[in-house]
Amino acid sequence: xxxxxxxxxxxxxxxxxxxxxxxxxxxxxxxxxxxxxxxxxxxxxxxxxxxxxxxxxxxxxxxxxxxxxxxxxxxxxxxxxxxxxxxxxxxxxxxxxxxxxxxxxxxxxxxxxxxxxxxxxxxxxxxxxxxxxxxxxxxxxxxxxxxxxxxxxxxxxxxxxxxxxxxxxxxxxxxxxxxxxxxxxxxxxxxxxxxxxxxxxxxxxxxxxxxxxxxxxxxxxxxxxxxxxxxxxxxxxxxxxxxxxxxxxxxxxxxxxxxxxxxxxxxxxxxxxxxxxxxxx
Length: 281
Description:
The chain is mainly alpha-helical. 44% of the residues lie in helices and 9% in strands. The longest helix is centred in the last third of the chain and has 19 residues, at 180-198.
């Protein structure tokens, strides 16, 4: 339910993004809105039984875009991540890094956009409990389950959080939360700050440009060094943490140096699931 709220806090598509989305959906023969033009970020949530072709694209007769392209400029939500075939999940690594997917058949290669926000949800173990004293899985079953999540794929998630059970009072009585409109306003403001500084969203800052657009305070740099030296953070993870910290700083109206508190928050948002998923950093 939470993942399905994401398109509501994303800005409307630009003209170029809307045109790209509309063309991809048309090529895939997906139902279009009455206007014939897609103007809001798409949300795609394929079933865990999906094939490689269904997710990435391709085909034996006519090559069509897959779910990664249908979700381009929007959200690709993979629920029950542990039920997807590991080979299908690993095929996501190239589109995540490059923002495009290339499908080939015979002598023909087509390139489709794949600039999606990947969101996934998974149980901590086969029984779904995950809590000591409640979980009924033995060590071998738990280890087999965790091996379905490859380290290189998990390393490409900017945020990794363990979500606990809701409190009984919250379920019974409910509690009003922040509206999507308020969150969306902050997203628009943060994106405007990023666009004015580096010409786009912080997630797209190139590694070579991080020191230019996401300069670190000495204490923040020292914190990252300690995380690297301890082995809790990989090289790829370092760059992703810096981009997230840049966004956190923008959300807190600190557009200059990225501080230690911003980096610490980015690390907290990344490390919770790593222990749960077999130690991937």
